[in-house]
Amino acid sequence: MKCFAVLLFAVAVFVQPALGLAEDEGCLIDALRNYTALRTAALMEANPILSPEAAVGLRRMEEAYCYRVAYCIIGDPKAESSRQIPYAAEFTTCLRDEALEQYGKK
């Protein structure tokens, strides 16, 4: 249960936009550093086999990380409609890359 609470906190941290850092690479570094620390902590507390709740929580953490990465690279998609498609593409690319990294190329 503690692992699930950590995962919920992680999602809340990542969903917050990186205010003022949309053009700064510090935004990406911060996103990666937070994601790595929270994912490592969650996996260290989990049993050798993840519960379904923990697996879903980790997936939500990946999604929140990818939202943050897309925001850092593209900026706020709500600010200009021309950013919506590049934002979605960056988010999708990030999720794909995370899946390939975790499960390997097939």
Overall average residue pLDDT: 80
Structural class: mainly alpha
The beta-strand count equals: 0
Helix content: over 70%
- Could you tell me how far the N terminus lies from the C terminus, measured between alpha carbons in angstroms? 33 Å
Name the shape in a single word: elongated
Low-confidence stretches: 3-22
What's the tally of helices? 4
Q: Tell me the number of structural domains.
A: 1
Largest sheet: none
List descriptors:
106 residues, mainly alpha, 74% helix
Sum this structure up briefly.
The chain has 106 residues and is mainly α. The chain is built from 4 helices and no strands.
Question: How would you describe this structure to a colleague?
Answer:
This protein has helices at residues 2-15, 25-45, 52-74, 84-103. Helix content is 74%, strand content 0%. By secondary structure, it is an all-alpha fold. The longest helix has 23 residues, at 52-74. It contains four helices and no strands. It is elongated, with a radius of gyration of 14 Å. Helix 1 runs parallel beside helix 3 (52-74) and helix 2 (25-45) runs antiparallel to helix 3 (52-74). The protein has one domain.
